[in-house]
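for the record, two folds in this file. i put them one after another cuz i was lazy. first one right below, seq on top, structure tokens after. the second one comes after a little note so u can tell where it starts
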Amino acid sequence: MKRKLALIALLLSLCCGASASGGVPLSRVMPDRSGELSGLRAGDVLTGWRLAGPDDWHPLSDQRDLWQAQLAAFAGSAVQLTAVRGSQQLHFRLEAGDWGLQLQCSRRRSVVDLPCAEIELLSLRLAEGAQSVSDLLAPSTRRWGRSTALMVIGDALSRVRSVDLTRPSLQRGLGELWLSDHADPGFARAGLQLLYGLPQWLYEADAALVQNLIDAAAAVEPTHPLMALALRAELLMSAQSNQVGHLSESVQAACRPLGWRSVICAQALANEGYWRSRHRETQPGRALCERSLALAQARGWAAIAADAALCVAWVELRTGELGAAAERMDQLVQQLAVSPQHWLRQARALSLLGSTARQQGDYASAVDFQRRAIALNRDRLPEFSARLYNNLGNTFQSLKRWEQAREAYAQAIALSSDEQTIHVGKIGLQGVMIEQGDWAAAEPLSAEILAWAERAYPNQGIHAVALANAALVAKGLGDAGREESLLREALRVRAGFDADGWRVATLHFQLAQNLARQGRAEWAQDSIAEAVSGMDRQIELLSDDQLLRIDFRQRFAEVYQLWIQLLIENDQVDRAFVASQHYRWQELRRLAGRRLTRSDGGVSPMIGEDERLLSYLQLDQHMVVFVVDAGRRVQLFRLPTSVAQIDASARAWRSQLAFSPADAAIASERALATQLHQQLIAPLQSAIGETEVLILQLDGPTRWLPFAALLDGDHCVADCRLVQRYRLLESFGPGQASSLSAPEQVLALGAPTRISAQLSDRLPEGMLSDRLDGAESELADIAARFAPRATILRGEEATESALRQALPTADLIHLATHALPDPLAPLQSLLVLQPGLPDAGDQDDGLLSAAELLTLDLRGKMVVLAGCETGLGKETQSDGFVGLRYALHAAGSPSVTATLWRVSDRSTAQLFAHYYQVLAQVSDPALALAEAQRRLLARQDRWAHPYYWAGVGVSSF
């Protein structure tokens, strides 16, 4: 619309020639910088070729109220204007419309110089597929003359909205033609407007265009400073110029007198915010994007609001706020889907959704979003398509779908003419070759990429990436010396701008691997210590979502595991154990506010005289176990069975346990339980001795296992389950759950009778009744057992607001309701409560997420999650399952009782009845659960099968 307004103004300048004296100069008619109209009367004759006022006129839509009021004051709602050109008079009607000043030209036959009707015909030609200005300019020039032809083409272009984005070459060609005529401010101004609206990628892909437009914008700045400044700022941002800061100040100075009530000002804010965020000024950049968004939303500028929302989401993605970015982009995609002209913004939003899903590890959704963006773009913008294909290739790499990744990168390289986009695609191809061990192809490509990066981006991030990848190629070729040299050079480059980043830690990790292979163990330990230190710093700096990123968690685990491995190989078992404790649950300790240094001796659980800590740790393809006694004596065991064999046995056993047993499967289950006992417990028996309590720290395939149901045939008179010999407690870190006091006040909540409308597709209404009887039984038992110290919230009372209100005085919280773990977005795992009033909002919507649990104060409070699969979530290498149980520990709870699979409702009620009977006497959750499980096991009926009792476990923190 802003382009159309300027073109209308240009129309006046083109048609108004020298005339008889006594006319009103246009400079007196059009608004000056203050926005005021002066000297305009109905019937005035306008003279002069030039349109411009004193220095800055632009018919901004946000000034329409001011102009409409001024027009109405002396001429009603419209002004009739007559312009004189030679002996001809041209008649116009100037009026204030809903989008600003509108100019309607007379269509009398005598008006031969102003082909208004022809504009519509030309618009049809544009819509039919004209691809360049030259296609239209020659015939139009023959008909009307060059100046009028350019004006007519521009007006037609503005009427065909889709042309702006579907064929930007038209927009660019016309804009450059107009802007090249610096002597005519009307043309120059219209050229600025067309070029200001070009897609950002055009600037980034053509350095010559950028420089030409910067020079041209500077030349016309006196006649249109705000537009010229804004265009120059945007162009310089694309050129990554250090002049942007100064120029942005000039844009702000021009916008302040307007009260920022300008589309250009709002767009300039978003552009600058995006640029600053790209250049590591994240918070200032975010503030500018959010300011642009608020301004655009307040003024109703939908397109600018969409651009600003994209900018904010991009910053959120950079800062690791993945959930917020995904939610924002999902809403934007839905809003834009009804407006076909906004297809590019919709495609950009889908692309950001794809990037977010990829970082969350949801690769299937990432592929879907990226393919939808590509389909929406089709062949309209080849450079944008190239970037989308590069993103798709990265996702296929994460999925290890190498051939599809190669195809995507090849598409990007073929489509792009931009050197950076092409080489990003080549870097992706290089990564596939490295993963596949195709060193013959990777070596020359690596040399090409490194030469380009050194020339185009010396000492910048992409240079460091090229060096690191070249080091991987050297490693694959067996050239350890060159690999070391390249890694040290990459560290030097990174030190200039990213000294504390996790990529620096990754380089130290790669260097440690290199030095270890060269037999330089002491040097390797120094390098891995640097890597560990860097990773620890990142734990403190990154957001919750960033810390759950698959790539970060994987690298974090690899760094710590190599450190532990090197310590073990150097017979430093005690140090290796302490390192393993720091490796475990780093993020959990951070969320809980328990910052522990490596020199702190209290990083492992407190161990009593009758207890042993069994700390399982997966190191590559084998498992080690640290066994620690009350005197903190550490013994190291290497399990003889490989991780792959343990995993196969564990999966087979768990698949039988997680479903109601059939007679035919009982013998198979017992055989697998015995086999896993031989693999995981029997090798440690000499160190376990005659202890009573086993504190378990689990890793790798052991995380899925209900250790209580392991079957020991060697140390019992008859076959017995592990829970019949020991009390079992899973430890999440320092502390001792058995040291808790007996609960004084109990809060039990559950059995909701309705569900939130948001769950209609995830939890059908019928599932509530499936859980209702068992939940009612649990609540009734707790009410009777702990009266009068129990607060019971059931049915309509089981709301989030009621839970929050009753929470402060409770020592024990029992939640008898459905749970919905979300392995892709673990902090969005849900407990299903009763929805509050319709106007209650998110605070009482009947959905209590893991993220909301983090906001509670649960210090000193025992929690029981009696729903299904409440102990599961997203599996991470160092923190285990991240979900509801994890969030409760992070909120301060020292003891959480949760489930590993979908449990029988009746058996659960029976199990918890026994559990609370014992807990009321001993205040030890592990002892209470062990006794409850033994009682079901002793029944000698179907409930003795581990399906009914082994899926419940106690964890401590």
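(here's the note) second protein begins now
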Amino acid sequence: MRKRPVDVLVNLAYLLICGLLAGVVVAAAVFPAAALSGYAAEIGGHALGRLPDDLIVKRSPQISYLYAADGKTLLASIYDENRRDVPMSEIPLVVRQAILAAEDQAFYKHDGVDLKGIARAFIANKQAGEVQQGASTLTMQFVRLSISYAADTPQEVVDATEDTPQRKIREMRYALAIEQRLTKDEILEGYLNTAYFGNRAYGIYAAAQVYFDKEPRDLTLPEAAFVAALVKFPGDFDAITHKGEELAVDRRNYVLDEMAQTKVITDAQAAAAKAEPLKVDGKFTPNGCVQTTNIKWGFFCDFFQRWWVQQEVFGATTFDRERALRSGGYRIVTSLDPVTQSAMDRSIDRALTKNPDLDKGRWAYKSDAVMLAGVEPGTGKVRGLAVNRNFRLDSKIKPTNGLASNPVLARRGIRGSYPNTTNPLITGSADLGGYQPGSVMKIFTLTSALENGFPLSYTINTTAPYVSHTRITGSPSCGGRWCPTNSGGKSWGAMNMWTGFGNSVNTYFVPLFERVGGTKVIDTAQRMGLTFHDNPNVDVDDYYWSQHAELWGPFTLGASDHTPLQIANAFATLAADGLYCEPIPVDAVYNSRGEKIDAADPRCTQNLPVDVARAAIDAARCPIGDQSLYGRCNGTTARDSKEIIGKYIAGKTGTTDNSKSVTLTITTKQLAISGFFTDPDWAQVNHKMSHRVVNPAVQYAMKWAMQDKPSVQFSKPGNQKVVFGNSPPPQPKPSAQPKSSTKPKPSAQPKPSVQPSPLTPPPPADGNAPVLPDALAPVLRRLLP
């Protein structure tokens, strides 16, 4: 057994002081008579009495567990210390007997301080010239652990554990006091749940899991003896690495002998247990989002963790909230639906292995990412997040990721995000604003138009190219104006919202954006959940344009960056009749006492009129092969969606300039899914993305997620004015220089007419046209669809 060299005089001094302060009066053979004079004993008693007896026994740090929405499927465990408290009823007698045989055989006989043990240790250590026996009772050890966990500063932790007479004095006084407050079983339970057993196993539950992959109640006699043997020198008896296997077996056998000596087992039982070979599993408890039970679920776990640290209910600061999560022992039922998540993962795999644009059975560009986000309308519960990536850190020694697809980064030796990354690709962050979604953004112009008096039947003559109201100084193209066109340069003629949205006609939505007013469109988009990335390193970014919205016609064609989660939630808002709900990753949160915390309730506000949302959904049924409740759909961009999914659906495709990213978003009444296909490492990717990848990824994810759910029909607007109207809506003239701080003044109501004019009014005179500053013209040109 291991011996610790120590100065004999120091050993003598601290044991002598401990004996005095405990009021020990033993035989003269143990302590010199002079040391036990009445005067010395009196001083010791006074010193002991002055010590406080108000020890704070804090609950030691616990693992927090994340479960799927079914409450059974474990997603992840998050902790600073691998510990899970268990009640005494789940700690078998053999474990309790083993730990007492190893650490404190007189536990049920003393009052916290073992006077005979102090005397015995003094004699043994004096004779050996080194520490062979300790004088600390199990209660004193529990006190030491409690003081350490109650410490608020590193120095307090040092003071709680350093080997000094002062520490022993304090432990003895607290031990005597705590024995008056807690029962013996409560102290033993607290000790077994707090002690360190090596290999990052804190407490008996973690020890049973790490070494034997068992619950504590299932430990055998030799296993219980081995675990009990560890607390003395957990670092030395490291049988997992075999470095300390021989020492571990010796120490286990010592504990078995002590159990036999104290008559809790027979000699025959001890001999049989010692004959068993030591077999440990070395199963470490996964920790954090890079070690989720399914490697694909790390992106959801990361979204949850980012959400958690923003919730004030869990602490005053982000540090406090993070600490609470990692030590609070929470049981968190997340919103992740295993069926939806599995459907997304399977559909991505299918899309990348079974489509016409493959290279030898897989998509040719590994850097490209298919990203899916699923949100429940009416609650904001995020039901799934999926991407063809692993949420893990790439190895620095043997990296798996190839060089970045961005040639500038590649030349600097920077690696890309495939196949391993911890970037929040699907949900975004302060550093990652998202990707251009393309024409799916027309939904915000359409919804804002409905809010501002333009009915679904509003008709525009869609000539191509369209001469916009925005002048680009220094450019001779199209008479110095921005002139968007349609795919293939086609002029579609007279279009309304159903047909314009169904066919994704640019030259319908750019003039509609101008007539509604950019400021109003952006306001609607923000109430549907869109945010605009504010990049401190860029003067002109999406946030800048959102503050100069009257100039931002390209917004309606998809020029701003957003995440799949934002777009999915925007369509979920429409499917929920205009009820916007903050995306949240939890269904329920319970603290370590099993009490439910008020943190998982949906956070919803009615941000759109019900009839406006219903009308927008009616138009959004056209692009994906469903039919308007008024039978007005004529044209589609993803016709096969309805047939594949087999439910009532609404949605929209999106394609950016040169197909650098393509998207498809589909919603039912119960689930909205948005899918993006792009290169997250290089926005200016030099190859085209394909709808033959993203479309089936979204379609089959929705099909499989919804296959056991009923098909729920969308509702008609109650106010038919939002559908057919009874007069043309106002068409305000654009201001010369729109300002972000003020909204356009409402114009007077126009005179009634039977139908709005199908003709596009000519652009205003140059004096009334918004002018793009010279410095911003190149930026706008880069955003042209």
